[in-house]
Amino acid sequence: MSSSPPPMEPSRKGPMRISVPDPVVREEHELPLFRDYGRYASLIAGTKDMRADATAQLSATVDHSETLYPSLISFVGQTGAGKSTLIKLLIDLMSDEGEAFPTPVVGAAGRDISTSEDVHLYLDPDSSESQAPLLFADCEGLDGGERDPVGAKLKKKLEKQAKQEAASGGRRRQRLKHTSERELIWADTPRKQSREFAVAHLYPRLLYTFSDVIVFVLKNPRVIEGVLERLVDWAQAALEKSSNQPVLPHAIIALNASENDIPEELWDVEHATKALMESLSRTIYHNATFKRYSQFWRERDRRIETVEQLVLSYYSSLRVIRIPTRGRPNLIHGQVKRLSDMMRWASKTSRERKAELRMLLDADEFQPYLQTAFDHFAMDLNTPFDFVQASFSNSPIPNDFGGNILKLAIQVMECWKDLARGPTIFEELSYLVASCIMLDAARHKIRGNDEQIFPQYIEHLDNALENFCDRHWPCEFIGPRGGRCVNVRSGHGAKGHQLRSGKLLAAGEYEANFDFVSYRQHFQENTYRKLKALRSLVSARIEEASVSEEHAAAEIHRESVLPAFFSHASRGDPQVFISHTICCSCLFEPPEHALPCGHIICTSCLKTYGKAHLKGHVEISECPLEKREAHFRKAWHVNLKPMNCGVRVLTLDGGGVRGIVELEILKQVEKELGGAINIQSFFDLIVGTSTGGIIALGLTARNWTLNECTTRFEELCGQAFTRRKGMNMPGISWIVSNYNHSIYETRPLQDALVEAFGDNQYLFGGKRDDPGSMDVKVAVTATSAAGQGVVLANYNRLCTEKLSYHFQRPDKLYGEVKTWEAARATSAAPTYFKPLHHEDSKQVYSDGGIYHNNPVHIADRERKLIWPHHQDQEPDILLSIGTLFCEKRKESKSAQWVGSSKGIVAHGRFLQKMAQDHLHTSLDSEKTWRDFINTRAPSGVNRGRYVRINPQVEEQPPKLDEVGKMRFLQDSARYLVGEDPKVKELAHRLVATCFYLDTLGDVKEDAYHEVFEVVGYFHCRFLAGEEVAKLGKYIKRHAQAGHDAHFLMKEEGRDTDLPQEIRLDARTINRMINHKVFYMDRPAQIRRNNKLSRTEIFCA
Length: 1100
Prior knowledge:
The protein contains 33 helices and 33 strands. By secondary structure, it is of the alpha/beta class. The protein folds into four domains: 32-52 and 65-145 and 181-379, Rossmann fold (3-Layer(aba) Sandwich); 396-473 and 512-582, no CATH class; 648-726 and 742-782 and 791-828 and 855-888 and 922-990, Cytosolic phospholipase A2 catalytic domain, CATH 3.40.1090.10; 994-1099, no CATH class. The strands form nine sheets. Strands 19, 20, 21, 22, 23, 24, 25, 26 and 27 form a nine-stranded mixed beta sheet that branches. The protein has a six-stranded mixed beta sheet with strand order 4-5-3-7-9-10, with helices on both faces. Strands 1-2-6 form a three-stranded antiparallel beta sheet, covered by helices on one side. The radius of gyration is 33 Å and the shape is globular. InterPro entries: Acyl_Trfase/lysoPLipase, P-loop_NTPase, PNPLA_dom, Znf_RING, Znf_RING_CS. Residues 1-20 are annotated as: Disordered. Residues 583-627 form the RING-type domain. It holds the Pfam family Patatin.
């Protein structure tokens, strides 16, 4: 379901639409199109706005993305029954004075043509500021026939006008824009291409599947029996078109425009419901529709004796409410309030049940589920939508040991299809799990015998098995005519036994001989026996070969377990076990390093099965998951940050064309460094937003020089900012931009990014010819459709806490973004460019600058997650670069999120709010920086580790899209930064960060335990080569006359003590320049009186 403003209708129509049939067929398409206009995202973002205090929301230190759990309430019924009227009444009566929420168009009385076309979405004012907002879906009338609704006629008229006003040269103006569209592949006959068919068959499948409540609206029906016929008919059309549906929707029958003179007790909901059920109780044996559906359920072992029992086979509950006609305002208000209360109760009940089943979706998860369903039902109306299958990509499993066992079990089940029983899968897994425990215990030097070690892992085994049995192992019931139930335990209660085709087999509870309670002990004992046997082999290997326990365990794991398991479990194709969220080699750590074969392994396994060299350089020639004969064509080389090195971080603000300022600042820094070493080589992590994100991707994923990056950036800006037709016409430009959701064409930007970054390179994972510059980690920020910050990155890390932003990492390659898509996502500034709809992951992304224009908070959090052993230490350097600022700038007053009397105006104001409120205030990146520094509160010499360069100008800097001012911006940045002493100081600090001390052995202590000593050597981060020579030249050039460069070491907090000096003498420097290597002849010795004291090291 989705969204868009009905074009220029003189009403209060809010913009959500699923567009189908006739009205949306384009000239080049024979099939009708299914369009999503992004209204869901707009409403959720608006809801978050209203929940947040303006000051707190725009502070980068506050989590402005509190989790929301929306409920969908669908209003369906006959044409002219008053669905739109009822929604309008709910919104108007529940709105506070002064609020203006979008409401539907209300048709003229007595008209038998639908007013609304397709499906439109509205926000309930009464719940708009709660954590569980209600969304009203207004569906086109059920019996409108083939006549176009009023809204569809208006849309056709406007599109016809747009064609007639097309510019010369045959290029026609764009129509009302959508975020995505799909051909309806099943619509291959005139009947299936009809509007009536879509209303009767497509809409029920979507609304019944995803709605928490169905409000069935009828207008004062004379034959009450017909009400329930329509209610059951509508549900039957969708009943078998979804499987593993956790909860059936609740049903509310709204008898609209009821006569005022009915008995008073019928206005009471409980009485009205009971009266209706009693009056129809015996019609189950006489009404043809009821008889047919009763027989349907009896054939599936469910006894149907009353109409109520029949209805509750399709719905979780049923309530009846009467809404009076005109003349009794107090009664109308009271009944509408009761309807609102009923909807909130039903939605709450539904959410609670889903939470019990661990299938409750938050606002961000709901969006990709919808997109997956859109794809599914656009392709095929008959195959059911499977919630469990959709959950694989949309509800990530925890990335701990238990979660990783579960993912592997699911993958084995998928490989073996229906060939394996549950016990067989976990029998197969137990050997690998035991081996992984053996390896982990050896790596972490966990002491003790098998009986002492194994219990430390039992909780993970239990979590994996219980989750698999509850949410992934299908019911084992087999029908009398064959066919196995596909519903899992958590998705079984709603419909009973169901075939893969969606057909209901029978009523009944979940059945399985394989369950957690009965198999738990067997799985534990089986794994323990194998662990014991493997550890015996390790002991024997240690004795035979005189190797360490870790080395022996790794060899046995590689030789006896991994290739055998993956060859057998994958049925001969280990490629099916490529995962982006688990290291299949050890099941403990996140995968970080993509190998030529496509498998991705963690750093520990890379070091274990590769050949590690000094300074973190690792060479690996084969994949540990495959047989040894499957060697790589050439050795794979990976550079790791040495353990004892500090972390160096660069952040780049967003700012449109002002990104050229960041490039000029970086050029000045690189120039100060001698211009011989690429600037990105001095950083471990680069994080960018918007154009800063594009620059970050160019420097890392493509390894561009600054000159090349500048050229590419100028070309990109020139191509990207291509205005739409009509944008230069007074009075028309605003309408055109809001029709299209953007000022600029999207295609030129996309083409420019594909040309710059290529169409085949994934940001993370995928087969590669070489590792590239993956040793420099890069992340860009974006904003999800539901208004949450998102990080797209070329690395992985483990995080077990809830963050204010989402780290996007799908399990499979098809869900990953390509590098150009990451650039497109981070730079999709509202009103300037349309959001990126990522088809494969079903995610929709907008500019990261909406919340994180200065991404320093995200960068600092990410560095701690990537390198957890450094999380309590200050970074070596954190450099934040901006795109100019002016103190004179006037802050715009943040307006409340309100609707409008016109649909297109409502959407336009929403976009303007995002662009002006969030972006405008976020562009005050100096405030973000000040907030960050105040939070970190570095003291003493640590203050110098945090550097911000953002030139201040006297007048307002150019706008984000003023391409003609780029040369001026370059010159200004060069002038403002060229002689800035901060740049010279920064260059010295970056050079200093290139060296680190690597200690040898353990800390030694004297006989009296009063003096503690550690010995180590200084090393250079750069491997032997040109960079070392160029670094040596820089040090020699800047050495003061008669004074060699040197390292200074002192105890932290002892500022009055003289530091210990280690000289970089001429011999060492000449060796760097002439032989391109760095090493010092003598070790450094550090002596302290406290074993736990910290030592600070400086380069001078």
